Amino acid sequence: MEMEEEITDEKKSDRLVNVVEKKLEIVSNRREKDYDINSTSDSISCKQYGTADCNISTILYPPRKPNAFEQLEKCLRSACCWKKRIVGPMKFCRLASEGDIALSFSGCGFLGVYHFGVLQGLNRDGKSLMKRVKRCAGASAGSLAAALWTFQPNDTEKGFNDVIKMATEIHSLRFGALSPNFALHKSLQKIIDLYIPEDISNAQDRLYISLTDQKRNINRLISRFTSRNYLIDSLLASCYIPLYSGSSPPVIDGDQYIDGGFTNNLPIFEELPTITISPFSGSAIIAPNDYDSMGPFREWRLRVGTQELKVNVQNMIRGAQALFPPNLEILKNYYEMGQRDAMKFLLDAGFLERQMGDAV
Protein backbone atom coordinates (compact mmCIF):
# COMPACT_ATOMS: atom_id res chain seq x y z
CA MET A 1 0.00 0.00 0.00
CA GLU A 2 1.36 3.38 -1.00
CA MET A 3 2.14 5.57 1.98
CA GLU A 4 0.55 9.03 1.97
CA GLU A 5 3.03 11.85 2.09
CA GLU A 6 2.93 13.74 5.37
CA ILE A 7 2.18 17.38 4.72
CA THR A 8 4.01 19.44 7.32
CA ASP A 9 3.47 23.09 8.16
CA GLU A 10 6.74 23.86 6.40
CA LYS A 11 5.56 22.24 3.18
CA LYS A 12 2.23 24.06 3.43
CA SER A 13 4.03 27.36 3.85
CA ASP A 14 6.31 26.68 0.87
CA ARG A 15 3.29 25.96 -1.29
CA LEU A 16 1.61 29.13 -0.04
CA VAL A 17 4.69 31.21 -0.81
CA ASN A 18 4.77 29.80 -4.34
CA VAL A 19 1.10 30.73 -4.84
CA VAL A 20 1.68 34.25 -3.52
CA GLU A 21 4.73 34.69 -5.73
CA LYS A 22 2.82 33.63 -8.84
CA LYS A 23 -0.06 35.98 -8.08
CA LEU A 24 2.33 38.83 -7.42
CA GLU A 25 4.05 38.19 -10.74
CA ILE A 26 0.68 38.48 -12.47
CA VAL A 27 -0.67 41.46 -10.52
CA SER A 28 2.43 43.63 -10.46
CA ASN A 29 4.12 44.61 -13.70
CA ARG A 30 6.75 46.65 -11.89
CA ARG A 31 10.29 45.48 -11.51
CA GLU A 32 11.21 44.23 -8.07
CA LYS A 33 12.78 46.83 -5.82
CA ASP A 34 15.78 46.18 -3.65
CA TYR A 35 13.98 46.03 -0.31
CA ASP A 36 16.24 45.79 2.69
CA ILE A 37 14.22 43.54 4.94
CA ASN A 38 15.27 41.88 8.15
CA SER A 39 13.39 38.61 8.68
CA THR A 40 12.60 36.92 11.96
CA SER A 41 10.12 34.26 12.89
CA ASP A 42 7.33 36.73 13.49
CA SER A 43 8.15 40.06 11.91
CA ILE A 44 9.68 42.03 9.09
CA SER A 45 10.96 45.56 8.92
CA CYS A 46 11.66 47.59 5.81
CA LYS A 47 14.48 50.10 6.17
CA GLN A 48 13.09 52.25 3.37
CA TYR A 49 10.51 53.85 5.67
CA GLY A 50 10.22 51.88 8.86
CA THR A 51 7.30 49.58 8.16
CA ALA A 52 6.84 46.46 10.22
CA ASP A 53 4.58 43.45 10.02
CA CYS A 54 2.87 44.41 6.75
CA ASN A 55 -0.86 43.80 6.75
CA ILE A 56 -1.24 41.62 3.67
CA SER A 57 -5.02 41.80 3.76
CA THR A 58 -4.98 45.51 2.94
CA ILE A 59 -2.17 45.41 0.39
CA LEU A 60 -2.50 42.22 -1.64
CA TYR A 61 -5.94 42.25 -3.26
CA PRO A 62 -9.59 42.60 -2.18
CA PRO A 63 -10.79 39.97 0.35
CA ARG A 64 -13.05 37.32 -1.14
CA LYS A 65 -14.21 35.68 2.04
CA PRO A 66 -14.13 36.63 5.75
CA ASN A 67 -10.84 36.04 7.58
CA ALA A 68 -9.15 34.66 4.44
CA PHE A 69 -6.20 36.99 4.64
CA GLU A 70 -5.98 36.80 8.42
CA GLN A 71 -5.45 33.05 7.96
CA LEU A 72 -2.89 33.74 5.24
CA GLU A 73 -0.94 36.07 7.52
CA LYS A 74 -1.08 33.60 10.40
CA CYS A 75 0.22 30.80 8.22
CA LEU A 76 3.02 32.93 6.81
CA ARG A 77 4.11 34.10 10.24
CA SER A 78 3.93 30.75 12.03
CA ALA A 79 5.84 29.02 9.23
CA CYS A 80 8.64 31.59 9.29
CA CYS A 81 8.43 32.14 5.56
CA TRP A 82 8.67 35.90 5.20
CA LYS A 83 11.04 36.20 2.28
CA LYS A 84 12.77 39.22 0.85
CA ARG A 85 11.73 38.39 -2.69
CA ILE A 86 7.97 38.52 -1.98
CA VAL A 87 7.38 41.05 0.79
CA GLY A 88 8.50 44.13 -1.16
CA PRO A 89 6.29 43.64 -4.25
CA MET A 90 3.44 42.43 -2.02
CA LYS A 91 3.39 45.80 -0.31
CA PHE A 92 2.58 47.75 -3.46
CA CYS A 93 0.93 45.38 -5.93
CA ARG A 94 -2.58 46.67 -5.17
CA LEU A 95 -1.41 50.26 -5.48
CA ALA A 96 0.16 49.40 -8.83
CA SER A 97 -3.27 49.04 -10.40
CA GLU A 98 -5.21 52.04 -11.69
CA GLY A 99 -8.09 51.67 -9.23
CA ASP A 100 -9.28 53.89 -6.39
CA ILE A 101 -7.28 54.15 -3.18
CA ALA A 102 -7.71 55.69 0.28
CA LEU A 103 -5.59 57.63 2.77
CA SER A 104 -5.73 57.14 6.53
CA PHE A 105 -4.15 59.46 9.10
CA SER A 106 -3.51 58.30 12.66
CA GLY A 107 -4.25 60.23 15.82
CA CYS A 108 -1.15 62.06 17.06
CA GLY A 109 -2.03 65.33 18.80
CA PHE A 110 0.32 68.20 18.00
CA LEU A 111 2.38 65.91 15.80
CA GLY A 112 -0.39 66.34 13.25
CA VAL A 113 2.06 68.71 11.56
CA TYR A 114 3.71 65.51 10.27
CA HIS A 115 0.46 64.72 8.43
CA PHE A 116 0.45 68.17 6.85
CA GLY A 117 4.00 67.54 5.65
CA VAL A 118 3.00 64.19 4.16
CA LEU A 119 0.07 65.80 2.35
CA GLN A 120 2.38 68.52 1.05
CA GLY A 121 4.78 65.90 -0.29
CA LEU A 122 2.08 63.73 -1.86
CA ASN A 123 0.39 66.69 -3.53
CA ARG A 124 3.68 68.00 -4.89
CA ASP A 125 5.41 64.78 -5.97
CA GLY A 126 2.59 62.29 -6.46
CA LYS A 127 -0.12 64.08 -8.40
CA SER A 128 -1.18 61.04 -10.44
CA LEU A 129 -1.48 58.89 -7.33
CA MET A 130 -3.45 61.55 -5.46
CA LYS A 131 -6.00 61.73 -8.29
CA ARG A 132 -6.93 58.15 -7.39
CA VAL A 133 -7.71 58.96 -3.74
CA LYS A 134 -11.47 58.59 -3.23
CA ARG A 135 -11.61 58.38 0.56
CA CYS A 136 -9.68 59.89 3.41
CA ALA A 137 -10.02 58.78 7.03
CA GLY A 138 -8.56 59.99 10.28
CA ALA A 139 -8.73 59.84 14.04
CA SER A 140 -8.10 62.76 16.39
CA ALA A 141 -5.53 65.08 14.76
CA GLY A 142 -5.59 62.73 11.79
CA SER A 143 -9.22 63.68 11.15
CA LEU A 144 -8.12 67.31 10.75
CA ALA A 145 -5.58 66.26 8.11
CA ALA A 146 -8.29 64.23 6.38
CA ALA A 147 -10.62 67.26 6.42
CA LEU A 148 -7.85 69.44 5.02
CA TRP A 149 -7.42 66.99 2.11
CA THR A 150 -11.18 67.04 1.55
CA PHE A 151 -11.70 70.79 1.40
CA GLN A 152 -8.38 72.61 1.01
CA PRO A 153 -5.66 70.16 -0.06
CA ASN A 154 -3.33 72.95 -1.18
CA ASP A 155 -3.39 74.76 2.17
CA THR A 156 -1.13 72.38 4.11
CA GLU A 157 1.41 75.09 4.86
CA LYS A 158 -1.35 77.34 6.16
CA GLY A 159 -2.57 74.51 8.40
CA PHE A 160 0.96 74.01 9.69
CA ASN A 161 1.26 77.71 10.53
CA ASP A 162 -2.04 77.63 12.45
CA VAL A 163 -0.75 74.75 14.58
CA ILE A 164 2.46 76.72 15.19
CA LYS A 165 0.38 79.70 16.38
CA MET A 166 -1.53 77.49 18.81
CA ALA A 167 1.69 75.92 20.10
CA THR A 168 3.18 79.40 20.59
CA GLU A 169 0.15 80.41 22.65
CA ILE A 170 0.45 77.26 24.78
CA HIS A 171 4.17 77.84 25.36
CA SER A 172 3.39 81.33 26.68
CA LEU A 173 1.15 79.92 29.43
CA ARG A 174 2.55 78.97 32.82
CA PHE A 175 1.04 75.48 32.82
CA GLY A 176 0.88 75.05 29.08
CA ALA A 177 -2.19 73.30 27.69
CA LEU A 178 -3.33 72.53 31.24
CA SER A 179 -3.57 76.19 32.22
CA PRO A 180 -6.98 77.07 33.72
CA ASN A 181 -7.51 79.97 31.31
CA PHE A 182 -6.83 77.88 28.20
CA ALA A 183 -9.33 75.54 26.53
CA LEU A 184 -7.82 73.46 23.74
CA HIS A 185 -11.30 72.53 22.56
CA LYS A 186 -12.24 76.17 21.89
CA SER A 187 -8.93 76.97 20.18
CA LEU A 188 -9.39 74.00 17.86
CA GLN A 189 -12.92 75.10 17.05
CA LYS A 190 -11.68 78.50 15.87
CA ILE A 191 -9.11 76.87 13.57
CA ILE A 192 -11.49 74.25 12.17
CA ASP A 193 -14.06 76.94 11.40
CA LEU A 194 -11.57 78.57 9.02
CA TYR A 195 -11.23 75.48 6.84
CA ILE A 196 -14.78 74.13 6.57
CA PRO A 197 -16.82 75.78 3.79
CA GLU A 198 -20.57 76.32 3.86
CA ASP A 199 -21.03 73.68 1.17
CA ILE A 200 -19.88 70.36 2.65
CA SER A 201 -21.18 68.11 -0.12
CA ASN A 202 -17.61 67.23 -1.04
CA ALA A 203 -17.24 65.42 2.30
CA GLN A 204 -20.15 63.01 1.90
CA ASP A 205 -18.82 59.43 1.74
CA ARG A 206 -15.30 60.77 1.11
CA LEU A 207 -14.30 62.04 4.56
CA TYR A 208 -14.38 59.40 7.33
CA ILE A 209 -14.01 60.52 10.94
CA SER A 210 -13.23 58.06 13.73
CA LEU A 211 -15.15 58.69 16.98
CA THR A 212 -15.51 56.88 20.30
CA ASP A 213 -18.90 56.59 21.97
CA GLN A 214 -18.00 57.65 25.52
CA LYS A 215 -20.73 55.63 27.23
CA ARG A 216 -20.42 52.37 25.26
CA ASN A 217 -16.70 52.67 24.43
CA ILE A 218 -17.31 51.58 20.83
CA ASN A 219 -16.03 53.08 17.60
CA ARG A 220 -18.08 54.93 15.04
CA LEU A 221 -16.78 55.94 11.61
CA ILE A 222 -18.88 58.85 10.35
CA SER A 223 -18.97 59.67 6.65
CA ARG A 224 -22.40 61.32 6.26
CA PHE A 225 -22.89 64.82 7.62
CA THR A 226 -26.29 66.50 7.95
CA SER A 227 -24.88 70.03 8.23
CA ARG A 228 -21.71 72.08 8.51
CA ASN A 229 -22.06 72.25 12.30
CA TYR A 230 -22.54 68.48 12.43
CA LEU A 231 -19.25 68.04 10.57
CA ILE A 232 -17.41 70.49 12.82
CA ASP A 233 -18.79 68.77 15.94
CA SER A 234 -17.61 65.42 14.57
CA LEU A 235 -14.08 66.75 14.09
CA LEU A 236 -14.06 68.29 17.56
CA ALA A 237 -15.32 65.04 19.08
CA SER A 238 -12.62 63.03 17.33
CA CYS A 239 -10.02 65.32 18.94
CA TYR A 240 -11.62 65.48 22.39
CA ILE A 241 -9.50 64.03 25.23
CA PRO A 242 -11.35 63.88 28.59
CA LEU A 243 -9.86 66.13 31.31
CA TYR A 244 -7.35 67.53 28.81
CA SER A 245 -9.48 69.31 26.22
CA GLY A 246 -11.64 71.19 28.70
CA SER A 247 -15.42 71.83 28.63
CA SER A 248 -17.62 68.79 27.96
CA PRO A 249 -17.56 66.22 25.11
CA PRO A 250 -19.47 67.15 21.94
CA VAL A 251 -22.93 65.62 21.58
CA ILE A 252 -23.69 63.95 18.25
CA ASP A 253 -27.04 62.30 17.56
CA GLY A 254 -27.87 62.49 21.26
CA ASP A 255 -24.68 60.78 22.52
CA GLN A 256 -21.39 62.15 23.81
CA TYR A 257 -18.35 61.26 21.70
CA ILE A 258 -14.64 61.54 22.46
CA ASP A 259 -11.29 60.96 20.73
CA GLY A 260 -11.58 58.31 18.02
CA GLY A 261 -8.03 57.20 18.78
CA PHE A 262 -9.24 55.34 21.86
CA THR A 263 -11.02 52.74 19.73
CA ASN A 264 -9.68 53.08 16.16
CA ASN A 265 -6.59 55.22 15.83
CA LEU A 266 -5.84 54.27 12.21
CA PRO A 267 -8.95 53.38 10.16
CA ILE A 268 -8.41 50.94 7.29
CA PHE A 269 -10.75 50.19 4.40
CA GLU A 270 -10.83 46.50 3.53
CA GLU A 271 -12.39 47.22 0.13
CA LEU A 272 -9.76 49.80 -0.91
CA PRO A 273 -5.96 49.82 -0.82
CA THR A 274 -5.27 52.13 2.13
CA ILE A 275 -2.11 54.19 2.49
CA THR A 276 -1.73 54.51 6.26
CA ILE A 277 0.18 57.47 7.70
CA SER A 278 1.52 58.04 11.22
CA PRO A 279 4.30 60.04 12.92
CA PHE A 280 4.82 57.03 15.21
CA SER A 281 7.11 54.31 13.88
CA GLY A 282 5.35 50.99 13.40
CA SER A 283 3.07 49.36 10.87
CA ALA A 284 1.91 52.49 9.02
CA ILE A 285 3.05 52.60 5.39
CA ILE A 286 4.30 56.19 5.66
CA ALA A 287 6.00 56.65 9.03
CA PRO A 288 9.35 57.55 10.63
CA ASN A 289 12.10 54.96 10.45
CA ASP A 290 13.43 53.93 13.87
CA TYR A 291 16.09 51.34 14.59
CA ASP A 292 16.86 49.58 17.82
CA SER A 293 20.54 49.32 18.66
CA MET A 294 20.11 45.57 19.06
CA GLY A 295 18.35 45.20 15.71
CA PRO A 296 14.86 43.87 14.96
CA PHE A 297 15.36 40.83 17.19
CA ARG A 298 14.98 43.02 20.27
CA GLU A 299 12.10 45.18 19.09
CA TRP A 300 8.86 45.11 21.05
CA ARG A 301 5.59 46.04 19.42
CA LEU A 302 2.29 47.22 20.83
CA ARG A 303 -0.92 46.71 18.89
CA VAL A 304 -3.51 49.48 19.25
CA GLY A 305 -6.58 48.50 17.23
CA THR A 306 -5.50 48.33 13.60
CA GLN A 307 -2.20 50.08 14.29
CA GLU A 308 0.98 48.44 15.50
CA LEU A 309 3.56 50.65 17.22
CA LYS A 310 7.18 50.01 18.03
CA VAL A 311 7.91 50.18 21.74
CA ASN A 312 11.02 52.34 21.86
CA VAL A 313 12.32 55.56 23.35
CA GLN A 314 11.61 57.58 20.20
CA ASN A 315 7.91 56.70 20.23
CA MET A 316 7.67 57.41 23.96
CA ILE A 317 9.06 60.89 23.35
CA ARG A 318 6.62 61.37 20.48
CA GLY A 319 3.75 60.35 22.75
CA ALA A 320 4.66 63.14 25.19
CA GLN A 321 5.12 65.64 22.36
CA ALA A 322 1.70 64.77 20.96
CA LEU A 323 0.02 66.04 24.14
CA PHE A 324 2.49 68.76 25.12
CA PRO A 325 3.82 70.55 22.04
CA PRO A 326 7.62 70.69 21.73
CA ASN A 327 9.44 73.84 20.66
CA LEU A 328 8.69 75.33 17.26
CA GLU A 329 11.90 74.06 15.69
CA ILE A 330 10.98 70.45 16.52
CA LEU A 331 7.46 70.92 15.13
CA LYS A 332 9.01 72.27 11.93
CA ASN A 333 11.25 69.21 11.80
CA TYR A 334 8.19 66.93 11.98
CA TYR A 335 6.58 68.85 9.12
CA GLU A 336 9.69 68.45 6.99
CA MET A 337 10.04 64.81 8.02
CA GLY A 338 6.52 64.19 6.73
CA GLN A 339 7.52 65.60 3.34
CA ARG A 340 10.64 63.43 3.20
CA ASP A 341 8.81 60.26 4.22
CA ALA A 342 6.13 60.93 1.60
CA MET A 343 8.81 61.28 -1.07
CA LYS A 344 10.50 58.04 0.08
CA PHE A 345 7.19 56.24 -0.25
CA LEU A 346 6.50 57.64 -3.72
CA LEU A 347 10.02 56.83 -4.88
CA ASP A 348 9.93 53.28 -3.56
CA ALA A 349 6.44 52.58 -4.90
CA GLY A 350 7.23 54.00 -8.33
CA PHE A 351 4.89 57.01 -8.17
CA LEU A 352 7.39 59.84 -7.74
CA GLU A 353 6.87 62.76 -10.15
CA ARG A 354 9.45 65.55 -10.02
CA GLN A 355 10.05 68.54 -12.26
CA MET A 356 13.30 68.35 -14.20
CA GLY A 357 16.05 69.98 -12.18
CA ASP A 358 14.34 69.55 -8.79
CA ALA A 359 16.51 68.15 -6.02
CA VAL A 360 15.51 64.70 -4.75
From TrEMBL:
Keyword Hydrolase: yes
Motif GXGXXG in this chain: 107-112
Keyword Nucleotide-binding: no
Motif (GXSXG): 138-142
PROSITE patterns per the UniProt record, alphabetical: PNPLA
UniProt-recorded Gene Ontology molecular function terms: triacylglycerol lipase activity
Keywords: Hydrolase, Lipid degradation, Lipid metabolism
Motif (DGA/G): 259-261
A Pfam family: Patatin
Name of the protein in its database record: PNPLA domain-containing protein
Organism: Acanthocheilonema viteae (Filarial nematode worm)
